[in-house]
Amino acid sequence: MRIALIYNKENEATTACYVERAMKKLGMDYTHFWTQDSSRIPQGFDLYFRIDHGDYKYDIPDSLRPAVFYAIDTHLEKPYKKIKKQAGHYDIIFCVHRDGARRLRKEIKADTQWIPVACDPEIHKKLDLPKAYDIGFVGRGGKKSTRERRLRILKEKYPNSFISTLDFKKMSEVYSASRIGFNSSLKNDINMRVFEIMASGCFLLTDCVKDNGFEDLFEVGKHLVIYRDDKELLQLADYYLKNEEEREKIAKQGYEWVKQNHTYFHRAQKMFNYIAFKFGGEFNKLRI
């Protein structure tokens, strides 16, 4: 089946690019279009698959059907309003965040399905490197955010840490060489870093995400460890830096779990199997 894949390919380290990589590996017949070119996408494709990239100036015409939308930024209020405005004409809306899927289902009566982000094992991988850093964090703090404050606290207490931005293809070098991979969500979201840290074989210490599907994905204490405030963050960091055997056991279990259950292959599988279930007939060819 011929698929029109629609998103702006401005950055390789996006969910959309990872999904496209999975589709390519699966041998799917697709053609990529930039969102600003949506008005020129021809009729005749069997499926129109748009992936959120944070820019809502353009949308695909209502006439291009069947159409599905993978919405990512539903946890941010301004993007959510724009997603909600555009999402009504799609046959299926896949949402990265479970609360976003529930909210869209309630407010616009859409067929929404929760499909979290994941890891790409070819990029997010365990490397055989000595542990050079106490704390590893690749990314940005977020201006005046709780994450920014916590990163500052960690940097002060654990100066032998890597806390900075880096080319996404090198992040596994940092996490593989870190005793603890740190994460802090911005808006109660299960972000990409959660999966990327574990896929690198690193122990994950992350904040508590409430009522948004976290417990459905992971077993706390087995795959990762969570903290609830700044005080507990430092207590747990101290504990697991001193207890290597326990830390590395959890890191190993988390690594194996994401490799077996939370790659972009698994996400593509769930999306295209649901598309086959929803539309039936010829769409069963998309089953993985």
Walk me through what this model shows:
There is one protein chain. This protein is α/β, with parallel strands linked by helices and 288 residues long. It has two domains: 2-118 and 263-286, Rossmann fold, CATH 3.40.50; 133-261, Rossmann fold (3-Layer(aba) Sandwich), CATH 3.40.50. It has ten helices and eleven strands. The chain has helices at residues 15-25, 77-87, 98-108, 146-157, 171-176, 192-199, 214-217, 230-242, 244-261, 264-279; strands spanning 2-6, 29-33, 47-51, 67-71, 92-95, 112-114, 133-138, 162-164, 178-183, 203-207, 225-227. The strands form two sheets. The protein has a six-stranded parallel sheet, sandwiched between helices. Helix 1 (15-25) links the parallel strand 1 and strand 2 (29-33).
**Beta strands, count:** 11
Q: Alpha-carbon distance between the termini? A: 13 Å
The total count of helices amounts to 10
Major sheet size, sense and barrel closure: 6 strands, parallel
- The CATH level-2 architecture of the largest domain is identified as 3-Layer(aba) Sandwich
CATH homologous superfamily assignment of the largest domain: Glycogen Phosphorylase B
The side-by-side strand order for the widest beta sheet comes to: 2-1-3-4-5-6
Determine the strand fraction and express it as a percent band. 15-25%
Q: Helicity range of the residues? A: 25-40%
Domains (count) = 2
Q: Per the principal axes of the C-alpha atoms, what is the gross shape?
A: elongated
- The overall pLDDT average reads 97
- The string of secondary-structure elements, in order, is EHEEEHEHEEHEHEHEHEHHH
CATH class of the largest domain: Alpha Beta
Contiguous uncertain segments of 5+ residues: none
Helix/strand/pairing class, anyone?
alpha/beta
Radius of gyration: 20 Å
